[in-house]
Design a protein that fits this description.
This protein has helices at residues 5-25, 145-153, 174-195, 220-228; strands at 45-59, 72-86, 95-101, 108-113, 116-117, 120-121, 128-134, 157-162, 208-217. It is of the alpha/beta class. Strands 1, 2, 5, 6, 7, 8 and 9 form a 7-stranded mixed sheet that branches. Strands 3-4 form a two-stranded antiparallel sheet. Helix 3 crosses helix 4 (220-228).
């Protein structure tokens, strides 16, 4: 015997309504009870800051033509940095990420998580190990923010790169991403090492131990990582249509 149509419609409407409420909350800190044990958040409170670093005199792939001398420019990367933090007594472990561009660049949202913007960092002898996150093409430094918060709560400094020419709202010719992705990753590794050293003047001073670093690469982020750890390119690949000019790949 089938249930009345009115009952079926009511259940469906309730389901859709519930899904809409959950979607609009845009929380990145939910862990389902069905998740593995290691998916649970760690014991550290979280802070987050946005910084910029600039690699001076990088080859400008998009403004270089075959057979001509490479143009150069200063390539600025925006980084989101999560870290273990010290919160004031009674301070809520929560914070918003405003103005997050989605895959449809016309849609901008606010994400809600646990990290407190500009919170005081927790300092330990030797600093915390580093994790670098590199998004896909296109993508955003917030794409894996749920993972970044979770890792930072377990005692890591996590830095997610916003790769120019690879974002949802600034995607350009693929040749730029092919060339720049591994260089961006290496540059950020070296900058985090520099900023974590004594007398750097950065909030990262003494906070991060870049000599112990892991990297998470999603899609083209993974491509960059393979190149960073030694994966090269064939001569044939460097001559394919749409690759960087002058055999620069």
């Amino acid at each position: 015997m089938h249930p009345p149509a009115r009952f079926v419609f009511s259940v469906a409407l309730l389901f859709v309504s519930s899904a809409r409420v959950n979607a609009q909350s845009n929380r990145i800190d939910r862990v389902t009870p069905l998740a593995p044990d290691l998916a649970a958040y760690g014991s550290h409170a979280l802070g987050v800051r946005t910084i910029q670093v600039t690699d001076k005199n990088r080859p400008d792939i998009l403004n270089t033509k075959d057979g001509t001398k490479a143009s150069r420019y200063d390539r600025t990367l925006t980084l989101e940095v999560w870290y273990p933090a010290i919160l004031a007594a009674g301070q809520a472990q929560s914070g918003d990420y405003e103005g997050v561009v989605t895959r449809d660049p016309k849609v901008v949202v606010t994400l809600r998580g646990r990290a407190v913007r500009d919170a005081n960092p927790e300092k330990v002898v030797g600093g915390f190990p580093l994790v670098i996150i590199s998004h896909g093409y296109p993508g955003s430094r917030y794409l894996l923010s749920h993972l970044a918060e979770n890792l930072a709560s377990k005692g890591f400094v996590v830095v997610s790169i916003q790769h120019p020419d690879s974002g949802y709202d600034d995607m350009k010719a693929f040749a730029s991403t092919l060339y720049n992705r591994p260089f961006d990753q290496l540059f950020v590794l070296n900058e985090m090492d520099r900023l974590g050293r004594k007398s750097s003047g950065s909030f990262l001073e003494g906070l991060v131990d870049a000599s112990h670093t892991g990297m998470v690469g999603y899609s083209m982020g993974g491509y960059g990582l393979v190149n960073v750890i030694g994966g090269g390119f064939s001569m044939a690949a460097s001559k394919l249509p749409g690759v960087p000019p002058n055999g620069m790949l």
